[in-house]
Amino acid sequence: MRRNKSVQYLAGIPFAVMLAASTTSWAAPTLVSGASPFASCNIGGPGTLYVNAEVEPWLAVNPTNPSNLIGVWQQDRWSNGGAHGLVAGFSFDGGLTWRQTPLPFSACANGLGYERASDPWVSIGPDGTAYSVSISFNQSNNSNAVGAAVSRDGGQSWGNLSVLIADNEPTLQFFNDKESVTANPIKAGVAYAVWDRLELPNGNPYANLHTAAFRGPAMFARTVDGGVTWSSPSVIVDTPARQQTIGNQIVVNSQDGTLYNFFDLISPPFSKAAGKVAFVRSTDDGATWSKPQIISGLQTVSVTDPNTGQPVRTGDIIPEPAIDPATGQLYVVWQDSRFNGGQYDEIALSTSTDGGRTWSAPIRVNTPSGKPAFNPSVRVNSAGTVAVTYYDFRDLAAGNTTTLPTNYWQTTSTNGGASFGSELKLSGPFDMMTAPVAGGFFLGDYSGLDARGTSFLSFFVQTNSGNTSNRTDVFFVAP
Protein backbone atom coordinates (compact mmCIF):
# COMPACT_ATOMS: atom_id res chain seq x y z
CA MET A 1 0.00 0.00 0.00
CA ARG A 2 1.40 3.45 -0.94
CA ARG A 3 0.15 5.03 2.24
CA ASN A 4 2.94 7.57 2.41
CA LYS A 5 1.17 9.23 -0.53
CA SER A 6 -2.27 8.02 0.43
CA VAL A 7 -5.44 9.98 0.88
CA GLN A 8 -6.48 11.13 4.31
CA TYR A 9 -9.17 8.58 5.04
CA LEU A 10 -12.90 9.23 4.71
CA ALA A 11 -11.76 6.58 5.81
CA GLY A 12 -22.16 -9.79 21.90
CA ILE A 13 -20.92 -10.90 25.25
CA PRO A 14 -17.73 -9.41 26.65
CA PHE A 15 -14.90 -11.89 27.15
CA ALA A 16 -12.23 -11.62 29.83
CA VAL A 17 -8.57 -11.65 28.84
CA MET A 18 -6.31 -13.83 30.96
CA LEU A 19 -2.62 -13.66 30.13
CA ALA A 20 0.22 -15.90 31.16
CA ALA A 21 2.33 -14.71 34.03
CA SER A 22 5.53 -15.77 32.27
CA THR A 23 6.78 -15.88 28.72
CA THR A 24 8.83 -18.40 26.78
CA SER A 25 11.48 -17.67 24.16
CA TRP A 26 12.52 -20.01 21.37
CA ALA A 27 15.66 -20.60 19.34
CA ALA A 28 16.72 -17.97 16.86
CA PRO A 29 14.39 -17.75 13.86
CA THR A 30 15.52 -19.07 10.46
CA LEU A 31 16.75 -16.48 7.97
CA VAL A 32 14.67 -16.62 4.78
CA SER A 33 15.68 -13.67 2.60
CA GLY A 34 19.03 -13.19 0.89
CA ALA A 35 20.79 -10.61 -1.24
CA SER A 36 18.46 -8.55 -3.39
CA PRO A 37 17.96 -9.82 -6.96
CA PHE A 38 17.13 -6.24 -7.95
CA ALA A 39 20.24 -4.54 -6.55
CA SER A 40 21.46 -3.45 -10.01
CA CYS A 41 18.06 -2.18 -11.18
CA ASN A 42 17.91 1.61 -11.59
CA ILE A 43 14.17 1.89 -12.34
CA GLY A 44 11.60 3.57 -10.12
CA GLY A 45 12.98 6.85 -8.81
CA PRO A 46 12.92 9.46 -7.45
CA GLY A 47 12.92 8.66 -3.74
CA THR A 48 15.18 7.01 -1.21
CA LEU A 49 15.81 3.39 -2.11
CA TYR A 50 16.68 0.94 0.66
CA VAL A 51 18.50 -1.83 -1.22
CA ASN A 52 18.35 -5.18 0.58
CA ALA A 53 15.48 -3.98 2.76
CA GLU A 54 12.65 -6.52 2.85
CA VAL A 55 9.23 -5.62 4.29
CA GLU A 56 5.62 -6.83 4.45
CA PRO A 57 5.79 -10.65 4.35
CA TRP A 58 2.98 -13.17 3.88
CA LEU A 59 2.99 -17.00 4.15
CA ALA A 60 1.02 -20.00 2.91
CA VAL A 61 1.29 -23.75 3.60
CA ASN A 62 0.72 -26.17 0.71
CA PRO A 63 -2.18 -28.45 1.76
CA THR A 64 -0.99 -31.19 -0.62
CA ASN A 65 2.52 -31.15 0.88
CA PRO A 66 2.70 -29.42 4.29
CA SER A 67 6.51 -29.41 4.09
CA ASN A 68 6.20 -26.98 1.18
CA LEU A 69 5.88 -23.37 2.34
CA ILE A 70 5.69 -20.26 0.16
CA GLY A 71 6.28 -16.77 1.51
CA VAL A 72 6.30 -13.44 -0.32
CA TRP A 73 7.60 -9.96 0.49
CA GLN A 74 8.53 -6.52 -0.85
CA GLN A 75 12.18 -6.32 -1.92
CA ASP A 76 14.16 -3.04 -1.87
CA ARG A 77 11.66 -0.69 -0.29
CA TRP A 78 11.30 2.89 -1.51
CA SER A 79 10.73 5.72 0.98
CA ASN A 80 7.79 7.08 -1.01
CA GLY A 81 5.86 3.93 -1.88
CA GLY A 82 6.35 0.36 -2.98
CA ALA A 83 9.51 -1.51 -3.80
CA HIS A 84 11.72 -2.50 -6.73
CA GLY A 85 9.71 -5.70 -6.84
CA LEU A 86 8.30 -8.67 -4.98
CA VAL A 87 10.11 -11.91 -4.13
CA ALA A 88 8.83 -15.39 -3.28
CA GLY A 89 10.67 -17.64 -0.84
CA PHE A 90 9.96 -21.36 -0.93
CA SER A 91 10.86 -24.31 1.29
CA PHE A 92 10.38 -28.05 0.82
CA ASP A 93 11.61 -29.11 4.27
CA GLY A 94 9.07 -27.43 6.48
CA GLY A 95 10.96 -24.14 6.73
CA LEU A 96 14.44 -25.40 7.65
CA THR A 97 15.94 -24.08 4.41
CA TRP A 98 14.70 -21.56 1.88
CA ARG A 99 15.37 -20.42 -1.68
CA GLN A 100 14.10 -17.30 -3.41
CA THR A 101 12.81 -16.25 -6.82
CA PRO A 102 11.56 -12.88 -8.13
CA LEU A 103 7.84 -12.51 -8.76
CA PRO A 104 6.96 -11.10 -12.22
CA PHE A 105 5.18 -7.95 -11.06
CA SER A 106 7.60 -5.12 -11.91
CA ALA A 107 10.03 -3.95 -14.56
CA CYS A 108 12.98 -4.84 -12.32
CA ALA A 109 11.75 -8.45 -12.42
CA ASN A 110 11.27 -8.38 -16.22
CA GLY A 111 7.56 -8.88 -15.65
CA LEU A 112 4.77 -6.31 -15.70
CA GLY A 113 6.25 -3.08 -16.99
CA TYR A 114 5.53 -0.97 -13.93
CA GLU A 115 8.26 0.83 -12.01
CA ARG A 116 7.32 -0.48 -8.55
CA ALA A 117 5.34 -3.21 -6.82
CA SER A 118 3.75 -3.53 -3.40
CA ASP A 119 1.33 -5.47 -1.15
CA PRO A 120 2.55 -9.04 -1.75
CA TRP A 121 0.12 -11.87 -1.05
CA VAL A 122 0.03 -15.65 -1.56
CA SER A 123 -2.54 -18.40 -1.04
CA ILE A 124 -2.45 -22.10 -1.99
CA GLY A 125 -5.43 -24.19 -3.13
CA PRO A 126 -6.33 -27.82 -2.34
CA ASP A 127 -4.55 -29.02 -5.50
CA GLY A 128 -1.30 -27.24 -4.59
CA THR A 129 -1.75 -24.34 -7.02
CA ALA A 130 -0.28 -21.17 -5.50
CA TYR A 131 -1.74 -17.77 -6.34
CA SER A 132 0.17 -14.52 -5.83
CA VAL A 133 -0.99 -10.94 -6.42
CA SER A 134 0.53 -7.46 -6.46
CA ILE A 135 -0.21 -3.78 -6.72
CA SER A 136 2.07 -2.64 -9.57
CA PHE A 137 2.45 1.05 -10.34
CA ASN A 138 4.61 3.86 -11.63
CA GLN A 139 6.17 6.63 -9.61
CA SER A 140 6.60 8.82 -12.68
CA ASN A 141 2.85 8.91 -13.41
CA ASN A 142 -0.40 7.42 -12.12
CA SER A 143 -0.39 4.19 -14.15
CA ASN A 144 -1.24 1.28 -11.87
CA ALA A 145 -2.64 -2.24 -11.91
CA VAL A 146 -3.46 -5.36 -9.93
CA GLY A 147 -1.40 -8.30 -11.18
CA ALA A 148 -1.72 -12.04 -10.53
CA ALA A 149 0.53 -15.04 -11.16
CA VAL A 150 0.43 -18.77 -10.45
CA SER A 151 2.93 -21.41 -9.37
CA ARG A 152 2.35 -25.15 -9.83
CA ASP A 153 5.75 -26.29 -8.55
CA GLY A 154 5.73 -25.15 -4.95
CA GLY A 155 6.82 -21.57 -5.59
CA GLN A 156 9.90 -22.28 -7.70
CA SER A 157 8.48 -20.68 -10.85
CA TRP A 158 5.54 -18.43 -11.63
CA GLY A 159 3.43 -18.19 -14.78
CA ASN A 160 -0.02 -17.26 -16.08
CA LEU A 161 0.84 -13.61 -15.45
CA SER A 162 -2.43 -11.69 -15.58
CA VAL A 163 -3.61 -8.10 -15.17
CA LEU A 164 -6.87 -8.10 -13.20
CA ILE A 165 -7.38 -4.35 -13.62
CA ALA A 166 -5.30 -1.50 -15.02
CA ASP A 167 -5.78 2.27 -14.77
CA ASN A 168 -3.05 3.74 -16.90
CA GLU A 169 -2.24 7.20 -18.24
CA PRO A 170 -3.96 9.33 -19.44
CA THR A 171 -6.51 8.22 -16.81
CA LEU A 172 -5.66 10.16 -13.64
CA GLN A 173 -8.27 9.69 -10.97
CA PHE A 174 -8.08 5.98 -10.04
CA PHE A 175 -5.62 4.03 -7.91
CA ASN A 176 -6.02 0.34 -7.11
CA ASP A 177 -4.72 -0.47 -3.64
CA LYS A 178 -4.24 -3.09 -0.91
CA GLU A 179 -5.16 -6.27 -2.75
CA SER A 180 -5.22 -9.82 -1.37
CA VAL A 181 -5.91 -13.28 -2.79
CA THR A 182 -7.59 -16.31 -1.19
CA ALA A 183 -7.66 -19.80 -2.67
CA ASN A 184 -10.88 -21.70 -2.06
CA PRO A 185 -9.85 -24.47 0.38
CA ILE A 186 -12.33 -27.04 -0.98
CA LYS A 187 -12.61 -26.18 -4.70
CA ALA A 188 -9.48 -26.81 -6.74
CA GLY A 189 -8.71 -24.09 -9.28
CA VAL A 190 -10.88 -21.44 -7.59
CA ALA A 191 -9.42 -18.32 -6.02
CA TYR A 192 -10.63 -14.80 -5.21
CA ALA A 193 -8.86 -11.43 -5.40
CA VAL A 194 -10.15 -8.31 -3.65
CA TRP A 195 -8.88 -4.74 -3.42
CA ASP A 196 -10.03 -1.13 -3.07
CA ARG A 197 -10.14 1.31 -6.00
CA LEU A 198 -9.58 4.87 -4.85
CA GLU A 199 -11.13 7.62 -6.90
CA LEU A 200 -11.02 11.41 -7.07
CA PRO A 201 -13.31 13.33 -9.41
CA ASN A 202 -10.50 14.73 -11.55
CA GLY A 203 -7.08 13.86 -10.21
CA ASN A 204 -4.71 11.30 -8.74
CA PRO A 205 -5.85 10.47 -5.18
CA TYR A 206 -2.24 9.95 -4.12
CA ALA A 207 -1.15 13.38 -5.33
CA ASN A 208 -3.44 15.10 -2.82
CA LEU A 209 -1.90 14.42 0.53
CA HIS A 210 -4.47 16.27 2.63
CA THR A 211 -7.71 15.62 0.80
CA ALA A 212 -10.05 12.70 1.10
CA ALA A 213 -10.74 10.22 -1.68
CA PHE A 214 -14.02 10.85 -3.43
CA ARG A 215 -14.80 7.20 -2.82
CA GLY A 216 -13.12 3.77 -2.62
CA PRO A 217 -15.30 0.74 -3.38
CA ALA A 218 -14.18 -2.85 -2.83
CA MET A 219 -13.46 -4.77 -6.04
CA PHE A 220 -13.60 -8.54 -6.68
CA ALA A 221 -12.29 -10.94 -9.33
CA ARG A 222 -12.41 -14.75 -9.43
CA THR A 223 -10.62 -17.52 -11.25
CA VAL A 224 -12.17 -20.98 -11.72
CA ASP A 225 -9.42 -22.45 -13.91
CA GLY A 226 -6.40 -22.21 -11.66
CA GLY A 227 -5.42 -18.67 -12.59
CA VAL A 228 -5.39 -19.14 -16.36
CA THR A 229 -8.17 -16.57 -16.64
CA TRP A 230 -9.89 -14.19 -14.21
CA SER A 231 -13.35 -12.67 -14.25
CA SER A 232 -13.83 -9.01 -15.02
CA PRO A 233 -13.61 -6.93 -11.83
CA SER A 234 -16.91 -6.19 -10.09
CA VAL A 235 -17.86 -3.94 -7.19
CA ILE A 236 -18.83 -5.86 -4.04
CA VAL A 237 -18.91 -2.92 -1.59
CA ASP A 238 -20.28 0.12 -3.37
CA THR A 239 -19.24 3.08 -1.25
CA PRO A 240 -21.03 6.41 -1.63
CA ALA A 241 -19.21 9.71 -1.94
CA ARG A 242 -16.59 10.33 0.74
CA GLN A 243 -16.42 6.75 1.90
CA GLN A 244 -13.89 4.03 1.17
CA THR A 245 -12.83 0.50 2.03
CA ILE A 246 -9.30 -0.69 2.67
CA GLY A 247 -7.68 -3.96 3.73
CA ASN A 248 -10.13 -6.25 1.93
CA GLN A 249 -9.46 -9.94 2.68
CA ILE A 250 -11.59 -13.04 2.11
CA VAL A 251 -11.90 -16.15 4.29
CA VAL A 252 -13.93 -19.19 3.21
CA ASN A 253 -16.14 -21.46 5.30
CA SER A 254 -15.03 -24.98 4.35
CA GLN A 255 -18.32 -26.45 5.58
CA ASP A 256 -20.81 -24.54 3.43
CA GLY A 257 -18.66 -22.49 1.00
CA THR A 258 -19.70 -19.08 2.35
CA LEU A 259 -17.26 -16.27 1.52
CA TYR A 260 -16.60 -13.50 4.04
CA ASN A 261 -14.78 -10.35 2.91
CA PHE A 262 -13.43 -8.30 5.83
CA PHE A 263 -12.27 -4.69 5.51
CA ASP A 264 -11.98 -1.30 7.16
CA LEU A 265 -14.94 0.90 6.19
CA ILE A 266 -13.90 4.53 6.46
CA SER A 267 -16.35 7.42 6.52
CA PRO A 268 -16.56 11.01 7.85
CA PRO A 269 -15.27 12.56 10.04
CA PHE A 270 -11.89 12.06 8.39
CA SER A 271 -9.51 10.70 10.99
CA LYS A 272 -7.89 7.38 11.82
CA ALA A 273 -10.69 6.75 14.32
CA ALA A 274 -13.24 7.08 11.49
CA GLY A 275 -12.71 3.43 10.52
CA LYS A 276 -15.03 0.54 11.26
CA VAL A 277 -14.22 -3.17 11.15
CA ALA A 278 -16.77 -4.56 8.71
CA PHE A 279 -17.53 -7.46 6.39
CA VAL A 280 -19.80 -8.62 3.59
CA ARG A 281 -20.94 -12.20 2.93
CA SER A 282 -21.54 -14.23 -0.24
CA THR A 283 -23.33 -17.61 -0.30
CA ASP A 284 -23.08 -18.07 -4.10
CA ASP A 285 -19.31 -18.08 -4.63
CA GLY A 286 -19.05 -14.34 -5.10
CA ALA A 287 -21.91 -13.75 -7.54
CA THR A 288 -23.81 -11.60 -5.03
CA TRP A 289 -22.89 -10.06 -1.68
CA SER A 290 -24.70 -8.82 1.41
CA LYS A 291 -24.70 -5.24 2.59
CA PRO A 292 -21.79 -4.31 4.91
CA GLN A 293 -22.17 -5.35 8.54
CA ILE A 294 -20.24 -3.42 11.19
CA ILE A 295 -18.36 -5.46 13.79
CA SER A 296 -16.77 -2.63 15.78
CA GLY A 297 -15.27 0.78 15.59
CA LEU A 298 -11.54 0.79 14.79
CA GLN A 299 -10.06 3.21 17.32
CA THR A 300 -6.45 3.45 16.23
CA VAL A 301 -4.32 6.43 17.18
CA SER A 302 -1.35 5.28 15.06
CA VAL A 303 2.02 4.22 16.50
CA THR A 304 4.95 6.38 17.55
CA ASP A 305 8.15 5.90 19.51
CA PRO A 306 6.89 6.50 23.10
CA ASN A 307 10.07 8.41 24.00
CA THR A 308 10.75 10.49 20.89
CA GLY A 309 7.39 10.73 19.15
CA GLN A 310 8.91 9.56 15.86
CA PRO A 311 6.32 7.85 13.67
CA VAL A 312 6.24 4.09 13.20
CA ARG A 313 4.21 3.08 10.17
CA THR A 314 2.08 -0.01 10.87
CA GLY A 315 -1.07 -1.75 9.69
CA ASP A 316 -3.13 0.47 11.95
CA ILE A 317 -6.12 0.56 9.59
CA ILE A 318 -5.90 -3.06 8.42
CA PRO A 319 -8.12 -5.65 10.16
CA GLU A 320 -6.94 -9.28 9.87
CA PRO A 321 -9.50 -12.13 9.80
CA ALA A 322 -9.36 -15.91 10.30
CA ILE A 323 -11.80 -18.79 10.29
CA ASP A 324 -11.78 -22.13 12.12
CA PRO A 325 -11.81 -24.66 9.26
CA ALA A 326 -13.66 -27.24 11.38
CA THR A 327 -16.40 -25.11 12.93
CA GLY A 328 -16.62 -21.94 10.82
CA GLN A 329 -16.06 -19.71 13.88
CA LEU A 330 -14.84 -16.31 12.68
CA TYR A 331 -12.15 -14.14 14.25
CA VAL A 332 -10.85 -10.68 13.44
CA VAL A 333 -8.01 -8.68 15.03
CA TRP A 334 -6.98 -5.05 14.64
CA GLN A 335 -5.11 -2.19 16.33
CA ASP A 336 -7.14 -0.24 18.85
CA SER A 337 -6.61 2.28 21.65
CA ARG A 338 -9.89 1.68 23.55
CA PHE A 339 -8.22 -0.30 26.35
CA ASN A 340 -6.08 2.61 27.57
CA GLY A 341 -8.23 5.66 27.01
CA GLY A 342 -6.97 6.42 23.53
CA GLN A 343 -3.30 6.82 24.41
CA TYR A 344 -1.70 4.12 22.21
CA ASP A 345 -2.59 1.16 20.02
CA GLU A 346 -2.98 -2.37 21.34
CA ILE A 347 -4.43 -5.57 19.83
CA ALA A 348 -8.20 -6.08 19.79
CA LEU A 349 -10.08 -9.27 18.88
CA SER A 350 -13.72 -10.07 18.23
CA THR A 351 -15.25 -13.44 17.30
CA SER A 352 -18.51 -14.83 15.93
CA THR A 353 -19.89 -18.35 16.36
CA ASP A 354 -23.01 -17.83 14.22
CA GLY A 355 -21.66 -16.98 10.79
CA GLY A 356 -21.22 -13.28 11.51
CA ARG A 357 -24.75 -12.52 12.66
CA THR A 358 -23.46 -11.48 16.10
CA TRP A 359 -19.98 -10.63 17.39
CA SER A 360 -18.36 -10.59 20.82
CA ALA A 361 -17.33 -7.32 22.42
CA PRO A 362 -13.67 -6.59 21.55
CA ILE A 363 -11.07 -7.83 24.02
CA ARG A 364 -7.40 -6.96 24.44
CA VAL A 365 -5.14 -9.82 23.31
CA ASN A 366 -1.65 -8.44 23.97
CA THR A 367 0.06 -8.35 27.35
CA PRO A 368 -0.49 -4.85 28.80
CA SER A 369 2.83 -3.02 28.98
CA GLY A 370 1.93 0.66 28.80
CA LYS A 371 3.42 0.80 25.28
CA PRO A 372 2.11 0.20 21.75
CA ALA A 373 1.43 -3.23 20.27
CA PHE A 374 0.85 -3.48 16.52
CA ASN A 375 0.60 -5.50 13.28
CA PRO A 376 -1.50 -8.41 14.57
CA SER A 377 -2.08 -11.60 12.59
CA VAL A 378 -4.50 -14.39 13.53
CA ARG A 379 -4.93 -18.06 12.56
CA VAL A 380 -6.74 -21.18 13.86
CA ASN A 381 -5.09 -24.61 13.83
CA SER A 382 -6.61 -28.06 13.36
CA ALA A 383 -7.27 -28.40 17.12
CA GLY A 384 -9.23 -25.14 17.24
CA THR A 385 -6.46 -23.22 19.01
CA VAL A 386 -6.28 -19.56 18.02
CA ALA A 387 -2.92 -17.81 17.68
CA VAL A 388 -2.31 -14.06 17.44
CA THR A 389 1.12 -12.61 16.65
CA TYR A 390 2.18 -8.98 17.07
CA TYR A 391 5.07 -6.59 17.72
CA ASP A 392 5.46 -4.39 20.80
CA PHE A 393 7.83 -1.96 22.54
CA ARG A 394 7.68 -3.36 26.10
CA ASP A 395 11.51 -3.43 26.41
CA LEU A 396 11.90 0.30 25.71
CA ALA A 397 13.34 1.93 28.83
CA ALA A 398 12.35 5.40 29.95
CA GLY A 399 14.78 7.98 28.59
CA ASN A 400 16.10 5.80 25.76
CA THR A 401 16.00 7.99 22.66
CA THR A 402 18.78 6.33 20.64
CA THR A 403 17.23 2.90 19.98
CA LEU A 404 13.71 1.47 19.81
CA PRO A 405 13.83 -2.14 21.13
CA THR A 406 11.10 -4.21 19.49
CA ASN A 407 9.90 -7.78 20.11
CA TYR A 408 7.68 -10.17 18.15
CA TRP A 409 5.18 -12.27 20.14
CA GLN A 410 2.69 -15.10 19.82
CA THR A 411 -0.19 -15.66 22.23
CA THR A 412 -2.83 -18.39 22.02
CA SER A 413 -6.37 -19.24 23.07
CA THR A 414 -7.77 -22.75 23.54
CA ASN A 415 -11.32 -21.65 24.43
CA GLY A 416 -12.55 -20.00 21.27
CA GLY A 417 -11.00 -16.60 21.95
CA ALA A 418 -12.44 -16.17 25.43
CA SER A 419 -8.96 -15.82 26.92
CA PHE A 420 -5.35 -15.75 25.73
CA GLY A 421 -2.14 -16.94 27.38
CA SER A 422 0.94 -19.12 26.78
CA GLU A 423 2.78 -16.09 25.45
CA LEU A 424 5.90 -16.86 23.40
CA LYS A 425 8.63 -14.45 22.39
CA LEU A 426 9.32 -15.33 18.77
CA SER A 427 12.06 -12.74 18.23
CA GLY A 428 13.75 -9.69 19.67
CA PRO A 429 14.60 -7.29 20.89
CA PHE A 430 15.82 -5.63 17.70
CA ASP A 431 16.14 -1.92 16.96
CA MET A 432 13.18 -0.53 15.01
CA MET A 433 15.22 2.60 14.25
CA THR A 434 17.21 0.57 11.69
CA ALA A 435 14.07 -0.07 9.62
CA PRO A 436 13.58 1.73 6.30
CA VAL A 437 11.67 4.99 6.69
CA ALA A 438 8.47 5.16 4.62
CA GLY A 439 6.04 7.42 6.42
CA GLY A 440 7.74 6.23 9.63
CA PHE A 441 9.94 3.29 10.58
CA PHE A 442 8.43 0.53 8.44
CA LEU A 443 8.38 -3.28 8.59
CA GLY A 444 5.12 -3.59 6.64
CA ASP A 445 1.39 -3.33 7.12
CA TYR A 446 1.12 -7.02 7.99
CA SER A 447 3.09 -10.19 8.82
CA GLY A 448 2.61 -13.81 7.82
CA LEU A 449 1.04 -16.48 10.02
CA ASP A 450 -0.34 -19.86 9.00
CA ALA A 451 -1.27 -23.17 10.62
CA ARG A 452 0.07 -26.62 9.78
CA GLY A 453 -1.85 -29.27 11.69
CA THR A 454 -1.62 -28.21 15.32
CA SER A 455 1.44 -26.00 14.72
CA PHE A 456 1.64 -22.30 13.95
CA LEU A 457 4.18 -20.94 11.49
CA SER A 458 5.29 -17.30 11.69
CA PHE A 459 6.83 -15.36 8.81
CA PHE A 460 7.94 -11.87 9.72
CA VAL A 461 10.47 -9.07 9.25
CA GLN A 462 12.93 -7.80 11.82
CA THR A 463 15.77 -5.33 11.53
CA ASN A 464 19.46 -6.12 11.46
CA SER A 465 20.11 -3.61 14.20
CA GLY A 466 22.53 -0.89 13.12
CA ASN A 467 23.20 -2.38 9.67
CA THR A 468 22.31 0.37 7.18
CA SER A 469 23.36 -1.68 4.12
CA ASN A 470 21.01 -4.55 5.03
CA ARG A 471 18.38 -2.97 7.25
CA THR A 472 15.84 -5.81 7.39
CA ASP A 473 15.39 -9.47 6.57
CA VAL A 474 12.54 -11.98 6.48
CA PHE A 475 12.55 -14.71 9.12
CA PHE A 476 10.60 -17.91 9.80
CA VAL A 477 9.88 -19.63 13.10
CA ALA A 478 7.71 -22.62 14.06
CA PRO A 479 7.68 -22.82 17.88
Helices and strands in order:
Elements: E1 24-25, E2 30-31, E3 49-61, E4 69-78, E5 83-91, E6 99-102, E7 116-124, E8 130-137, E9 144-151, E10 159-167, E11 174-183, E12 191-199, E13 215-216, E14 218-223, E15 234-237, E16 243-252, E17 259-266, E18 275-282, E19 293-297, E20 303-304, E21 311-313, E22 320-323, E23 330-336, E24 346-352, E25 363-364, E26 373-380, E27 386-392, E28 405-413, E29 421-431, E30 441-442, E31 448-452, E32 455-463, E33 472-477
Parallel strand pairs: 1-29, 13-16, 21-30
Antiparallel strand pairs: 2-33, 3-4, 4-5, 5-6, 7-8, 8-9, 9-10, 11-12, 12-14, 14-15, 16-17, 17-18, 18-19, 20-21, 22-23, 23-24, 24-25, 26-27, 27-28, 28-29, 31-32, 32-33
Your description of this structure?
- With 479 residues, the protein is mostly beta strands.
- A hairpin with a 2-residue loop joins strand 31 and strand 32.
- It has no helices and 33 strands.
- Strands 1-29-28-27-26 form a 5-stranded mixed β-sheet, with no helix packed on it. It has a 5-stranded mixed β-sheet with strand order 13-16-17-18-19, with no helix packed on it.
How many strand elements?
33
User: Rough shape?
Assistant: globular
Taking the alpha carbons of the first and last residues, their distance comes to: 30 Å
Main sheet?
5 strands, mixed
Can you count the helices?
0
Proportion of residues in extended strands: over 45%
**Main structural class:** mainly beta
Helix content: under 10%
Mean pLDDT: 92
Radius of gyration (CA) equals: 20 Å
Q: Spatial order of the strands in the main sheet?
A: 1-29-28-27-26
Low-pLDDT sequence parts: 1-22
Subunit arrangement of the protein: single chain
